[in-house]
Design goal:
With about 170 residues, this protein is an alpha+beta fold. About 35% of the residues lie in helices and about 30% in strands.
Length: about 170
Protein backbone atom coordinates (compact mmCIF):
# COMPACT_ATOMS: atom_id res chain seq x y z
CA UNK A 1 0.00 0.00 0.00
CA UNK A 2 1.47 3.41 -0.92
CA UNK A 3 1.73 6.42 1.31
CA UNK A 4 -1.56 7.81 -0.01
CA UNK A 5 -3.68 5.11 1.55
CA UNK A 6 -1.33 3.66 4.17
CA UNK A 7 -1.77 6.52 6.62
CA UNK A 8 -5.52 6.26 6.34
CA UNK A 9 -5.79 2.49 5.98
CA UNK A 10 -6.00 1.64 9.66
CA UNK A 11 -8.44 4.41 10.47
CA UNK A 12 -12.18 3.92 10.31
CA UNK A 13 -14.69 6.71 10.37
CA UNK A 14 -18.09 6.25 11.94
CA UNK A 15 -20.89 8.08 10.20
CA UNK A 16 -24.62 8.20 10.94
CA UNK A 17 -27.12 5.52 9.90
CA UNK A 18 -24.78 2.64 10.66
CA UNK A 19 -22.38 3.36 7.82
CA UNK A 20 -18.67 2.76 8.17
CA UNK A 21 -16.09 4.31 5.86
CA UNK A 22 -12.84 2.39 5.45
CA UNK A 23 -9.88 2.60 3.11
CA UNK A 24 -10.66 0.57 -0.01
CA UNK A 25 -9.03 -2.84 -0.08
CA UNK A 26 -7.69 -4.69 -3.10
CA UNK A 27 -9.72 -7.76 -2.14
CA UNK A 28 -12.85 -5.61 -2.63
CA UNK A 29 -12.04 -4.63 -6.23
CA UNK A 30 -14.51 -7.08 -7.82
CA UNK A 31 -17.35 -5.79 -5.60
CA UNK A 32 -16.33 -2.17 -6.20
CA UNK A 33 -16.32 -2.65 -9.98
CA UNK A 34 -19.73 -4.35 -9.89
CA UNK A 35 -21.10 -1.47 -7.79
CA UNK A 36 -19.68 1.11 -10.24
CA UNK A 37 -21.22 -0.68 -13.23
CA UNK A 38 -24.60 -1.04 -11.50
CA UNK A 39 -24.60 2.59 -10.34
CA UNK A 40 -23.58 3.96 -13.77
CA UNK A 41 -26.28 1.78 -15.39
CA UNK A 42 -28.93 3.17 -13.03
CA UNK A 43 -29.16 6.30 -15.16
CA UNK A 44 -30.90 6.48 -18.53
CA UNK A 45 -27.90 5.79 -20.80
CA UNK A 46 -28.15 3.98 -24.12
CA UNK A 47 -26.88 0.40 -24.19
CA UNK A 48 -24.30 1.43 -26.81
CA UNK A 49 -22.93 4.21 -24.59
CA UNK A 50 -22.76 1.94 -21.53
CA UNK A 51 -20.98 -0.78 -23.49
CA UNK A 52 -18.24 1.73 -24.36
CA UNK A 53 -18.18 3.69 -21.08
CA UNK A 54 -18.24 0.95 -18.44
CA UNK A 55 -14.77 -0.45 -19.24
CA UNK A 56 -13.35 3.05 -18.74
CA UNK A 57 -14.69 3.08 -15.18
CA UNK A 58 -13.16 -0.27 -14.22
CA UNK A 59 -10.63 0.16 -11.40
CA UNK A 60 -7.54 -1.91 -10.69
CA UNK A 61 -5.17 -2.36 -7.75
CA UNK A 62 -2.82 0.34 -9.06
CA UNK A 63 -5.69 2.86 -8.94
CA UNK A 64 -6.46 1.95 -5.32
CA UNK A 65 -2.78 2.31 -4.37
CA UNK A 66 -2.30 5.70 -6.03
CA UNK A 67 -5.49 7.51 -4.92
CA UNK A 68 -7.47 8.00 -1.73
CA UNK A 69 -10.17 5.34 -2.04
CA UNK A 70 -13.00 4.55 0.36
CA UNK A 71 -15.49 1.74 0.80
CA UNK A 72 -18.73 2.79 2.45
CA UNK A 73 -20.12 -0.22 4.28
CA UNK A 74 -23.59 -0.74 5.74
CA UNK A 75 -24.32 -2.33 9.12
CA UNK A 76 -24.02 -5.80 7.56
CA UNK A 77 -20.53 -4.84 6.24
CA UNK A 78 -21.85 -4.88 2.66
CA UNK A 79 -20.56 -2.37 0.13
CA UNK A 80 -23.09 0.46 -0.06
CA UNK A 81 -20.95 3.00 -1.93
CA UNK A 82 -17.46 3.73 -3.18
CA UNK A 83 -15.62 7.04 -3.37
CA UNK A 84 -12.15 8.16 -4.38
CA UNK A 85 -10.09 11.31 -4.55
CA UNK A 86 -7.43 11.74 -7.21
CA UNK A 87 -4.69 14.07 -6.07
CA UNK A 88 -2.90 16.18 -8.66
CA UNK A 89 -0.72 19.27 -8.58
CA UNK A 90 -3.48 21.49 -9.99
CA UNK A 91 -6.70 19.88 -8.79
CA UNK A 92 -7.74 17.42 -6.11
CA UNK A 93 -10.73 15.72 -7.69
CA UNK A 94 -13.59 13.68 -6.31
CA UNK A 95 -12.93 11.11 -9.00
CA UNK A 96 -15.57 8.55 -8.03
CA UNK A 97 -18.73 8.59 -5.96
CA UNK A 98 -20.97 5.64 -6.68
CA UNK A 99 -23.90 4.51 -4.54
CA UNK A 100 -25.63 1.15 -4.87
CA UNK A 101 -28.78 1.84 -6.95
CA UNK A 102 -31.19 0.42 -4.34
CA UNK A 103 -29.73 2.89 -1.81
CA UNK A 104 -29.79 6.05 -3.94
CA UNK A 105 -31.81 8.78 -2.24
CA UNK A 106 -31.17 7.51 1.30
CA UNK A 107 -28.46 10.01 2.24
CA UNK A 108 -25.45 7.79 1.63
CA UNK A 109 -24.04 10.05 -1.10
CA UNK A 110 -24.49 13.10 1.13
CA UNK A 111 -22.81 11.40 4.09
CA UNK A 112 -19.98 10.24 1.86
CA UNK A 113 -19.49 13.77 0.51
CA UNK A 114 -19.41 15.14 4.04
CA UNK A 115 -16.72 12.60 4.91
CA UNK A 116 -14.74 13.51 1.77
CA UNK A 117 -14.99 17.23 2.62
CA UNK A 118 -13.73 16.60 6.16
CA UNK A 119 -10.95 14.37 4.82
CA UNK A 120 -9.91 17.15 2.41
CA UNK A 121 -10.04 19.87 5.08
CA UNK A 122 -7.80 17.87 7.43
CA UNK A 123 -5.20 17.88 4.65
CA UNK A 124 -5.44 21.64 4.26
CA UNK A 125 -7.13 21.54 0.87
CA UNK A 126 -9.22 24.61 0.12
CA UNK A 127 -11.18 23.25 -2.83
CA UNK A 128 -12.27 20.03 -4.43
CA UNK A 129 -13.27 19.42 -8.05
CA UNK A 130 -15.68 16.96 -9.61
CA UNK A 131 -16.66 16.05 -13.16
CA UNK A 132 -20.15 14.59 -12.59
CA UNK A 133 -22.23 12.63 -15.04
CA UNK A 134 -24.99 15.02 -16.20
CA UNK A 135 -27.75 13.13 -14.32
CA UNK A 136 -25.95 13.69 -11.00
CA UNK A 137 -25.23 17.42 -11.38
CA UNK A 138 -28.14 18.43 -9.13
CA UNK A 139 -26.80 16.25 -6.33
CA UNK A 140 -23.42 18.00 -6.49
CA UNK A 141 -25.07 21.42 -6.53
CA UNK A 142 -26.96 20.46 -3.35
CA UNK A 143 -23.62 19.45 -1.84
CA UNK A 144 -22.24 22.96 -2.47
CA UNK A 145 -20.38 22.46 -5.74
CA UNK A 146 -20.68 25.21 -8.36
CA UNK A 147 -20.45 24.93 -12.13
CA UNK A 148 -17.16 26.50 -13.25
CA UNK A 149 -18.33 26.93 -16.85
CA UNK A 150 -15.59 24.57 -18.03
CA UNK A 151 -16.79 21.69 -20.23
CA UNK A 152 -15.13 18.36 -21.00
CA UNK A 153 -16.00 16.12 -23.93
CA UNK A 154 -16.71 12.48 -23.19
CA UNK A 155 -14.00 9.90 -23.83
CA UNK A 156 -16.78 7.94 -25.54
CA UNK A 157 -17.54 9.04 -29.10
CA UNK A 158 -20.90 10.86 -29.07
CA UNK A 159 -20.98 10.63 -25.26
CA UNK A 160 -22.27 13.48 -23.09
CA UNK A 161 -20.37 16.69 -22.50
CA UNK A 162 -19.70 17.08 -18.78
CA UNK A 163 -19.53 20.21 -16.69
CA UNK A 164 -16.65 20.78 -14.28
CA UNK A 165 -17.75 21.65 -10.75
CA UNK A 166 -15.77 22.99 -7.79
CA UNK A 167 -16.49 23.45 -4.10
CA UNK A 168 -14.64 25.84 -1.81
CA UNK A 169 -13.85 24.13 1.48
CA UNK A 170 -13.88 26.27 4.60
CA UNK A 171 -10.71 26.03 6.62
CA UNK A 172 -10.84 24.00 9.78
CA UNK A 173 -11.30 26.07 12.90
CA UNK A 174 -8.90 25.13 15.68
Amino acid sequence: MTCLTASYHSQMTEVPVGLRIVAAREESLARINVLIARSKSYWDWSADYLEKALPMHRLDAAYLRSNYCFEILNVAAELAAFASIAVASKRNTLDNLWVRPDLIGQGIGRQTCEHIFEFARTRGWTELWVLPDPPSEQFYKRMGFSDTGERVKSRVVNGPVSSVYRVQLPREID
